[in-house]
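Weekly structure sync, notes
Attendees: PL (lead), two postdocs, one rotation student
Agenda item 3: pending single-chain targets
PL asked that the sequence for the first pending target be pasted directly into the notes so everyone works from the same version. It is reproduced below exactly as submitted, 447 residues in total.
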Amino acid sequence: MNFGKRARVASRTGHNARWGTALVCVAAAWCLDGASSRAGNVESSLAGLPSIGSSTVEAPSPFPVASEVRLAGDEQQTRFILDFDRATPVRAFVLSDPYRVVVDLPQVSFHLAAGAGTASRGLIKAFRYGLVMPGGSRIVLDLTGPAKMASATVLDAANGQPPRLVIELEAVDKAAFAAAAPPELRPSLSPIQTVAVTTPASPLTLPALPDAKPAPTIAPPTTDARPIVVIDPGHGGIDNGTQAGGESEKNLVLGFALALRDRIEKAGKYRVVMTRTDDTFIPLGERSKIARSHAAALFISIHADALPRGEGSAQGATIYTLSEKASDAEAERLADSENKADAIGGVNLTEEPTDVADILIDLAQRETRTFSNHFARLLVGEMKTTARMHKHPLKSAGFKVLKAPDVPSVLLELGYVSDKSDLQQLVSEAWRTKTVGAVNQAIDAFF
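Predicted structure, written out during the meeting:
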Protein backbone atom coordinates (compact mmCIF):
# COMPACT_ATOMS: atom_id res chain seq x y z
CA MET A 1 0.00 0.00 0.00
CA ASN A 2 1.49 3.35 -1.01
CA PHE A 3 1.58 6.48 1.15
CA GLY A 4 -1.52 8.00 -0.46
CA LYS A 5 -3.56 4.91 0.22
CA ARG A 6 -2.35 4.79 3.82
CA ALA A 7 -3.45 8.38 4.27
CA ARG A 8 -6.91 7.65 2.88
CA VAL A 9 -7.35 4.58 5.06
CA ALA A 10 -6.19 6.51 8.12
CA SER A 11 -8.58 9.32 7.24
CA ARG A 12 -11.51 6.91 6.93
CA THR A 13 -10.58 5.20 10.19
CA GLY A 14 -10.40 8.52 12.01
CA HIS A 15 -13.58 9.61 10.27
CA ASN A 16 -15.49 6.57 11.53
CA ALA A 17 -14.12 6.95 15.05
CA ARG A 18 -14.83 10.71 15.26
CA TRP A 19 -18.33 10.58 13.94
CA GLY A 20 -19.13 7.29 15.65
CA THR A 21 -18.42 8.91 19.03
CA ALA A 22 -20.29 12.11 18.24
CA LEU A 23 -23.30 10.39 16.76
CA VAL A 24 -23.69 8.09 19.74
CA CYS A 25 -24.22 11.20 21.85
CA VAL A 26 -26.84 12.82 19.64
CA ALA A 27 -28.48 10.05 17.64
CA ALA A 28 -27.80 6.71 19.35
CA ALA A 29 -31.43 5.72 19.29
CA TRP A 30 -31.48 6.06 15.52
CA CYS A 31 -27.97 4.82 14.78
CA LEU A 32 -28.27 1.50 16.58
CA ASP A 33 -31.96 0.66 16.84
CA GLY A 34 -32.57 -2.74 15.36
CA ALA A 35 -29.23 -3.57 13.74
CA SER A 36 -29.66 -7.09 12.54
CA SER A 37 -28.02 -9.90 14.43
CA ARG A 38 -28.57 -11.87 11.30
CA ALA A 39 -25.59 -10.30 9.59
CA GLY A 40 -23.15 -11.65 12.16
CA ASN A 41 -24.27 -15.19 11.55
CA VAL A 42 -24.69 -15.43 7.81
CA GLU A 43 -23.88 -18.66 6.10
CA SER A 44 -20.67 -18.80 4.15
CA SER A 45 -22.26 -20.41 1.11
CA LEU A 46 -25.34 -21.99 -0.38
CA ALA A 47 -23.78 -25.43 -0.06
CA GLY A 48 -26.22 -28.26 -0.20
CA LEU A 49 -28.54 -26.75 -2.80
CA PRO A 50 -28.76 -28.88 -5.96
CA SER A 51 -27.42 -27.27 -9.11
CA ILE A 52 -29.64 -26.60 -12.09
CA GLY A 53 -30.25 -29.80 -13.97
CA SER A 54 -29.22 -32.00 -11.04
CA SER A 55 -30.79 -35.45 -11.03
CA THR A 56 -30.71 -35.59 -7.23
CA VAL A 57 -34.08 -36.53 -5.80
CA GLU A 58 -35.24 -33.82 -3.42
CA ALA A 59 -36.05 -34.81 0.14
CA PRO A 60 -39.52 -33.95 1.42
CA SER A 61 -39.73 -30.30 2.40
CA PRO A 62 -39.48 -29.66 6.15
CA PHE A 63 -41.83 -26.72 5.58
CA PRO A 64 -45.43 -26.65 4.39
CA VAL A 65 -45.66 -26.64 0.59
CA ALA A 66 -48.02 -24.31 -1.28
CA SER A 67 -48.74 -26.02 -4.59
CA GLU A 68 -51.62 -24.28 -6.38
CA VAL A 69 -53.49 -20.99 -6.23
CA ARG A 70 -56.86 -19.97 -7.66
CA LEU A 71 -58.96 -16.79 -7.85
CA ALA A 72 -62.74 -16.67 -8.23
CA GLY A 73 -65.50 -14.08 -8.10
CA ASP A 74 -66.09 -10.55 -9.35
CA GLU A 75 -65.65 -6.90 -8.39
CA GLN A 76 -68.04 -7.26 -5.43
CA GLN A 77 -66.93 -10.57 -3.94
CA THR A 78 -63.62 -12.32 -4.63
CA ARG A 79 -62.18 -15.56 -3.26
CA PHE A 80 -58.47 -16.39 -2.92
CA ILE A 81 -57.65 -20.11 -2.57
CA LEU A 82 -54.19 -21.54 -1.86
CA ASP A 83 -53.55 -25.30 -1.59
CA PHE A 84 -51.10 -26.70 0.98
CA ASP A 85 -49.76 -30.16 1.62
CA ARG A 86 -50.65 -29.80 5.31
CA ALA A 87 -52.83 -27.54 7.45
CA THR A 88 -50.95 -24.28 8.05
CA PRO A 89 -51.96 -21.54 10.50
CA VAL A 90 -52.15 -17.99 9.15
CA ARG A 91 -52.80 -14.44 10.34
CA ALA A 92 -54.42 -12.00 7.92
CA PHE A 93 -55.19 -8.27 7.97
CA VAL A 94 -55.88 -5.42 5.58
CA LEU A 95 -53.96 -2.20 4.97
CA SER A 96 -54.46 0.95 2.91
CA ASP A 97 -52.22 3.29 0.88
CA PRO A 98 -52.27 1.15 -1.19
CA TYR A 99 -55.15 -1.19 -0.37
CA ARG A 100 -53.85 -4.70 0.25
CA VAL A 101 -54.31 -7.86 2.30
CA VAL A 102 -51.30 -9.17 4.20
CA VAL A 103 -51.15 -12.84 5.19
CA ASP A 104 -48.41 -13.91 7.62
CA LEU A 105 -47.66 -17.60 8.02
CA PRO A 106 -44.79 -19.88 9.06
CA GLN A 107 -42.05 -20.51 6.53
CA VAL A 108 -43.57 -22.04 3.42
CA SER A 109 -42.05 -23.56 0.28
CA PHE A 110 -43.94 -21.98 -2.61
CA HIS A 111 -44.15 -24.38 -5.56
CA LEU A 112 -46.49 -22.28 -7.67
CA ALA A 113 -46.63 -22.08 -11.45
CA ALA A 114 -44.45 -19.50 -13.19
CA GLY A 115 -46.24 -16.19 -13.37
CA ALA A 116 -48.49 -16.95 -10.42
CA GLY A 117 -49.69 -13.71 -8.97
CA THR A 118 -49.61 -11.66 -12.16
CA ALA A 119 -53.20 -12.38 -13.24
CA SER A 120 -56.01 -10.25 -11.83
CA ARG A 121 -59.59 -11.06 -10.96
CA GLY A 122 -62.31 -9.17 -9.17
CA LEU A 123 -60.96 -7.26 -6.17
CA ILE A 124 -57.45 -8.73 -6.55
CA LYS A 125 -55.24 -7.11 -9.18
CA ALA A 126 -52.08 -9.09 -8.33
CA PHE A 127 -50.37 -10.87 -5.47
CA ARG A 128 -46.84 -11.74 -4.38
CA TYR A 129 -45.33 -14.16 -1.91
CA GLY A 130 -42.04 -15.18 -0.36
CA LEU A 131 -39.83 -15.40 2.70
CA VAL A 132 -39.72 -12.25 4.85
CA MET A 133 -37.46 -13.65 7.59
CA PRO A 134 -36.11 -17.02 8.70
CA GLY A 135 -39.14 -18.99 9.84
CA GLY A 136 -41.72 -16.62 8.38
CA SER A 137 -43.35 -16.17 4.97
CA ARG A 138 -45.82 -13.60 3.72
CA ILE A 139 -48.44 -13.26 0.99
CA VAL A 140 -49.58 -9.81 -0.10
CA LEU A 141 -52.75 -9.38 -2.17
CA ASP A 142 -52.85 -6.06 -4.04
CA LEU A 143 -56.45 -4.86 -4.18
CA THR A 144 -58.25 -2.74 -6.72
CA GLY A 145 -59.85 -0.67 -3.96
CA PRO A 146 -61.12 -0.78 -0.38
CA ALA A 147 -62.35 -4.18 0.77
CA LYS A 148 -62.99 -6.17 3.92
CA MET A 149 -62.24 -9.80 4.69
CA ALA A 150 -65.48 -11.63 5.33
CA SER A 151 -63.45 -14.68 6.35
CA ALA A 152 -60.00 -16.22 6.24
CA THR A 153 -60.10 -19.94 6.88
CA VAL A 154 -57.68 -22.86 6.64
CA LEU A 155 -59.70 -25.93 5.71
CA ASP A 156 -58.73 -29.53 6.39
CA ALA A 157 -58.24 -31.98 3.55
CA ALA A 158 -61.65 -33.37 2.52
CA ASN A 159 -63.42 -34.91 -0.47
CA GLY A 160 -60.21 -35.26 -2.44
CA GLN A 161 -59.21 -31.65 -1.82
CA PRO A 162 -55.93 -30.83 -0.03
CA PRO A 163 -55.73 -28.49 2.99
CA ARG A 164 -56.25 -24.97 1.71
CA LEU A 165 -56.42 -21.34 2.72
CA VAL A 166 -59.61 -19.58 1.62
CA ILE A 167 -59.92 -15.79 1.91
CA GLU A 168 -63.27 -14.18 1.14
CA LEU A 169 -63.16 -10.49 0.20
CA GLU A 170 -66.06 -8.08 -0.12
CA ALA A 171 -65.98 -4.60 -1.65
CA VAL A 172 -66.72 -1.66 0.69
CA ASP A 173 -66.53 2.09 0.26
CA LYS A 174 -63.70 4.22 1.61
CA ALA A 175 -65.75 5.44 4.54
CA ALA A 176 -66.56 1.91 5.68
CA PHE A 177 -62.94 0.87 5.29
CA ALA A 178 -61.69 3.90 7.25
CA ALA A 179 -64.19 3.27 10.04
CA ALA A 180 -62.83 -0.24 10.52
CA ALA A 181 -59.17 0.87 10.53
CA PRO A 182 -57.29 1.99 13.67
CA PRO A 183 -56.04 5.58 14.01
CA GLU A 184 -52.38 4.65 13.65
CA LEU A 185 -50.96 5.39 10.22
CA ARG A 186 -48.09 2.97 10.64
CA PRO A 187 -49.24 -0.55 11.58
CA SER A 188 -47.33 -3.07 13.59
CA LEU A 189 -47.63 -6.79 12.95
CA SER A 190 -50.72 -6.76 15.16
CA PRO A 191 -53.69 -7.33 12.86
CA ILE A 192 -55.50 -4.23 11.67
CA GLN A 193 -58.60 -6.16 10.72
CA THR A 194 -58.41 -9.49 12.48
CA VAL A 195 -60.43 -12.34 11.05
CA ALA A 196 -60.94 -15.59 12.86
CA VAL A 197 -58.84 -18.33 11.31
CA THR A 198 -60.08 -21.87 11.55
CA THR A 199 -57.33 -24.49 11.62
CA PRO A 200 -56.67 -27.67 13.58
CA ALA A 201 -52.98 -26.79 13.74
CA SER A 202 -51.27 -25.16 16.71
CA PRO A 203 -51.36 -21.35 16.99
CA LEU A 204 -49.12 -19.44 14.62
CA THR A 205 -45.72 -18.69 16.07
CA LEU A 206 -43.46 -16.34 14.12
CA PRO A 207 -40.10 -14.90 15.18
CA ALA A 208 -40.53 -11.41 16.60
CA LEU A 209 -40.19 -8.55 14.12
CA PRO A 210 -39.12 -5.04 15.12
CA ASP A 211 -42.14 -2.96 16.07
CA ALA A 212 -41.00 0.02 18.10
CA LYS A 213 -37.44 0.50 19.36
CA PRO A 214 -35.68 -2.88 19.68
CA ALA A 215 -32.65 -3.18 21.87
CA PRO A 216 -29.47 -2.14 20.04
CA THR A 217 -27.46 -4.97 18.57
CA ILE A 218 -23.78 -4.30 18.03
CA ALA A 219 -21.35 -6.58 16.25
CA PRO A 220 -19.15 -8.41 18.79
CA PRO A 221 -15.67 -6.96 19.24
CA THR A 222 -12.87 -8.53 17.25
CA THR A 223 -9.12 -8.22 17.04
CA ASP A 224 -9.27 -8.55 13.25
CA ALA A 225 -8.15 -5.13 11.97
CA ARG A 226 -9.00 -5.78 8.32
CA PRO A 227 -11.50 -3.32 6.78
CA ILE A 228 -15.06 -4.63 6.61
CA VAL A 229 -16.89 -4.60 3.27
CA VAL A 230 -20.66 -5.09 3.41
CA ILE A 231 -22.22 -6.54 0.26
CA ASP A 232 -25.95 -6.00 -0.08
CA PRO A 233 -27.82 -8.05 -2.71
CA GLY A 234 -30.97 -6.03 -3.34
CA HIS A 235 -34.54 -7.24 -2.86
CA GLY A 236 -35.18 -10.86 -1.81
CA GLY A 237 -37.98 -13.02 -0.47
CA ILE A 238 -41.36 -11.53 -1.27
CA ASP A 239 -39.68 -8.67 -3.18
CA ASN A 240 -38.59 -9.99 -6.60
CA GLY A 241 -37.30 -6.69 -7.90
CA THR A 242 -37.38 -6.30 -11.67
CA GLN A 243 -38.23 -9.32 -13.83
CA ALA A 244 -37.76 -10.20 -17.49
CA GLY A 245 -37.18 -13.28 -19.60
CA GLY A 246 -38.00 -15.60 -16.71
CA GLU A 247 -35.25 -14.06 -14.58
CA SER A 248 -35.77 -12.05 -11.40
CA GLU A 249 -33.48 -9.32 -10.13
CA LYS A 250 -33.31 -10.77 -6.62
CA ASN A 251 -31.71 -14.01 -7.90
CA LEU A 252 -29.38 -12.34 -10.39
CA VAL A 253 -27.92 -9.95 -7.84
CA LEU A 254 -27.63 -12.62 -5.15
CA GLY A 255 -25.55 -14.79 -7.48
CA PHE A 256 -23.29 -11.84 -8.30
CA ALA A 257 -22.96 -10.84 -4.64
CA LEU A 258 -22.00 -14.35 -3.54
CA ALA A 259 -19.38 -14.55 -6.32
CA LEU A 260 -17.98 -11.17 -5.24
CA ARG A 261 -17.86 -12.30 -1.62
CA ASP A 262 -15.94 -15.43 -2.57
CA ARG A 263 -13.45 -13.43 -4.65
CA ILE A 264 -12.80 -10.94 -1.83
CA GLU A 265 -12.47 -13.62 0.85
CA LYS A 266 -10.08 -15.63 -1.29
CA ALA A 267 -7.64 -12.71 -1.31
CA GLY A 268 -7.99 -12.32 2.44
CA LYS A 269 -7.44 -8.55 2.55
CA TYR A 270 -10.88 -7.64 3.89
CA ARG A 271 -13.63 -9.09 6.01
CA VAL A 272 -16.97 -9.49 4.23
CA VAL A 273 -20.45 -9.21 5.71
CA MET A 274 -23.50 -10.07 3.60
CA THR A 275 -26.90 -8.52 4.28
CA ARG A 276 -28.45 -11.72 2.93
CA THR A 277 -27.15 -15.02 1.60
CA ASP A 278 -30.47 -16.56 0.61
CA ASP A 279 -33.90 -15.61 -0.67
CA THR A 280 -34.91 -13.54 2.35
CA PHE A 281 -36.62 -10.14 2.51
CA ILE A 282 -34.72 -7.50 4.50
CA PRO A 283 -36.09 -3.97 5.08
CA LEU A 284 -34.04 -1.12 3.64
CA GLY A 285 -33.22 0.47 6.97
CA GLU A 286 -31.95 -2.80 8.36
CA ARG A 287 -29.49 -3.16 5.50
CA SER A 288 -27.67 0.06 6.34
CA LYS A 289 -27.86 -0.74 10.06
CA ILE A 290 -25.99 -3.98 9.37
CA ALA A 291 -23.18 -1.91 7.88
CA ARG A 292 -23.17 0.57 10.77
CA SER A 293 -23.26 -2.11 13.47
CA HIS A 294 -20.12 -3.68 11.98
CA ALA A 295 -18.34 -0.31 11.56
CA ALA A 296 -18.06 -1.08 7.85
CA ALA A 297 -15.47 0.71 5.77
CA LEU A 298 -17.51 0.26 2.57
CA PHE A 299 -21.10 -0.67 1.64
CA ILE A 300 -22.00 -1.93 -1.85
CA SER A 301 -25.66 -2.47 -2.72
CA ILE A 302 -26.12 -4.54 -5.88
CA HIS A 303 -29.16 -4.26 -8.18
CA ALA A 304 -30.31 -4.60 -11.79
CA ASP A 305 -32.56 -1.98 -13.35
CA ALA A 306 -35.44 -2.09 -15.86
CA LEU A 307 -37.20 0.61 -17.81
CA PRO A 308 -41.01 0.53 -17.76
CA ARG A 309 -42.62 -0.33 -21.09
CA GLY A 310 -43.02 2.63 -23.37
CA GLU A 311 -40.23 4.65 -21.74
CA GLY A 312 -37.56 3.99 -24.32
CA SER A 313 -34.49 1.82 -23.94
CA ALA A 314 -31.28 1.88 -21.93
CA GLN A 315 -28.40 -0.46 -21.27
CA GLY A 316 -25.21 -0.75 -19.31
CA ALA A 317 -24.07 -0.58 -15.69
CA THR A 318 -24.56 2.52 -13.54
CA ILE A 319 -23.11 3.49 -10.16
CA TYR A 320 -25.25 5.62 -7.86
CA THR A 321 -24.31 7.64 -4.79
CA LEU A 322 -26.51 9.46 -2.30
CA SER A 323 -27.73 13.00 -2.90
CA GLU A 324 -30.72 15.03 -1.78
CA LYS A 325 -31.47 16.02 -5.37
CA ALA A 326 -31.46 13.42 -8.13
CA SER A 327 -28.89 13.92 -10.89
CA ASP A 328 -31.55 13.34 -13.55
CA ALA A 329 -35.11 12.09 -14.04
CA GLU A 330 -34.02 8.46 -14.51
CA ALA A 331 -32.08 8.50 -11.23
CA GLU A 332 -35.12 9.94 -9.47
CA ARG A 333 -37.36 7.25 -10.96
CA LEU A 334 -35.02 4.48 -9.86
CA ALA A 335 -34.67 5.86 -6.32
CA ASP A 336 -38.46 6.13 -6.00
CA SER A 337 -38.80 2.53 -7.16
CA GLU A 338 -36.09 1.10 -4.91
CA ASN A 339 -37.34 3.06 -1.89
CA LYS A 340 -40.69 1.26 -2.13
CA ALA A 341 -39.12 -2.08 -1.22
CA ASP A 342 -40.47 -2.04 2.34
CA ALA A 343 -44.02 -1.41 1.13
CA ILE A 344 -43.63 -4.26 -1.35
CA GLY A 345 -42.86 -6.49 1.64
CA GLY A 346 -46.37 -5.82 2.91
CA VAL A 347 -45.66 -3.82 6.06
CA ASN A 348 -43.06 -1.12 6.58
CA LEU A 349 -41.04 -2.45 9.51
CA THR A 350 -38.45 0.31 9.70
CA GLU A 351 -38.52 3.73 11.27
CA GLU A 352 -36.98 6.83 9.81
CA PRO A 353 -35.07 9.19 12.11
CA THR A 354 -37.23 12.00 13.42
CA ASP A 355 -34.50 14.61 12.94
CA VAL A 356 -31.82 14.02 10.34
CA ALA A 357 -30.97 17.70 10.10
CA ASP A 358 -28.78 17.59 13.18
CA ILE A 359 -25.53 19.36 12.37
CA LEU A 360 -23.25 16.48 13.41
CA ILE A 361 -25.10 14.00 11.24
CA ASP A 362 -25.04 16.45 8.36
CA LEU A 363 -21.29 16.96 8.65
CA ALA A 364 -20.67 13.23 8.88
CA GLN A 365 -22.75 12.66 5.76
CA ARG A 366 -20.80 15.28 3.83
CA GLU A 367 -17.46 13.65 4.59
CA THR A 368 -18.85 10.19 3.91
CA ARG A 369 -20.20 11.30 0.53
CA THR A 370 -16.72 12.41 -0.46
CA PHE A 371 -15.45 8.86 0.09
CA SER A 372 -18.54 7.40 -1.61
CA ASN A 373 -18.00 9.53 -4.71
CA HIS A 374 -14.32 8.58 -4.76
CA PHE A 375 -15.14 4.86 -4.73
CA ALA A 376 -17.85 5.34 -7.38
CA ARG A 377 -15.30 6.91 -9.75
CA LEU A 378 -12.85 4.07 -9.09
CA LEU A 379 -15.59 1.54 -9.79
CA VAL A 380 -16.48 3.13 -13.12
CA GLY A 381 -12.81 3.18 -14.09
CA GLU A 382 -12.37 -0.54 -13.42
CA MET A 383 -15.72 -1.76 -14.77
CA LYS A 384 -15.52 0.06 -18.10
CA THR A 385 -12.69 -2.29 -19.14
CA THR A 386 -14.81 -5.42 -18.67
CA ALA A 387 -18.50 -4.46 -18.73
CA ARG A 388 -20.78 -2.34 -20.85
CA MET A 389 -21.47 0.94 -19.04
CA HIS A 390 -24.45 3.28 -19.23
CA LYS A 391 -23.84 6.41 -21.31
CA HIS A 392 -23.97 8.34 -18.01
CA PRO A 393 -22.44 5.81 -15.60
CA LEU A 394 -22.19 8.09 -12.53
CA LYS A 395 -25.47 9.26 -11.03
CA SER A 396 -26.94 10.20 -7.67
CA ALA A 397 -30.33 10.24 -5.93
CA GLY A 398 -31.96 9.85 -2.52
CA PHE A 399 -31.66 6.09 -2.02
CA LYS A 400 -32.71 5.07 1.49
CA VAL A 401 -30.29 2.15 1.52
CA LEU A 402 -27.33 4.53 1.11
CA LYS A 403 -28.18 6.83 4.02
CA ALA A 404 -25.77 5.54 6.68
CA PRO A 405 -24.04 8.81 7.65
CA ASP A 406 -20.65 7.30 8.42
CA VAL A 407 -20.24 4.41 5.92
CA PRO A 408 -19.11 5.15 2.34
CA SER A 409 -21.86 3.62 0.22
CA VAL A 410 -22.71 3.05 -3.44
CA LEU A 411 -25.51 1.34 -5.31
CA LEU A 412 -24.32 -0.66 -8.32
CA GLU A 413 -26.86 -1.31 -11.07
CA LEU A 414 -25.30 -4.15 -13.07
CA GLY A 415 -27.44 -3.52 -16.14
CA TYR A 416 -30.99 -3.49 -17.44
CA VAL A 417 -32.99 -6.71 -17.39
CA SER A 418 -35.35 -4.94 -19.81
CA ASP A 419 -32.53 -4.93 -22.41
CA LYS A 420 -31.97 -8.29 -24.12
CA SER A 421 -28.21 -7.90 -24.49
CA ASP A 422 -27.81 -6.77 -20.87
CA LEU A 423 -29.91 -9.69 -19.67
CA GLN A 424 -27.75 -12.11 -21.65
CA GLN A 425 -24.71 -10.73 -19.84
CA LEU A 426 -26.37 -10.84 -16.43
CA VAL A 427 -26.98 -14.60 -16.77
CA SER A 428 -23.51 -15.25 -18.22
CA GLU A 429 -21.01 -16.91 -15.92
CA ALA A 430 -18.08 -15.54 -17.94
CA TRP A 431 -19.40 -11.96 -17.74
CA ARG A 432 -20.01 -12.29 -14.01
CA THR A 433 -16.49 -13.56 -13.39
CA LYS A 434 -14.93 -10.63 -15.28
CA THR A 435 -17.16 -8.05 -13.67
CA VAL A 436 -16.63 -9.43 -10.16
CA GLY A 437 -12.91 -9.09 -10.81
CA ALA A 438 -13.33 -5.45 -11.83
CA VAL A 439 -15.32 -4.63 -8.68
CA ASN A 440 -12.71 -6.38 -6.56
CA GLN A 441 -9.95 -4.29 -8.19
CA ALA A 442 -11.89 -1.10 -7.42
CA ILE A 443 -12.14 -2.16 -3.77
CA ASP A 444 -8.35 -2.71 -3.69
CA ALA A 445 -7.79 0.74 -5.20
CA PHE A 446 -10.11 2.33 -2.64
CA PHE A 447 -8.17 0.95 0.31
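Discussion points:
- Residues 17-57, 183-218, 348-358 have pLDDT under 50 and may be disordered.
- The first helix runs from residue 3 to 32.
Action: rotation student to compare against the earlier draft before next sync.
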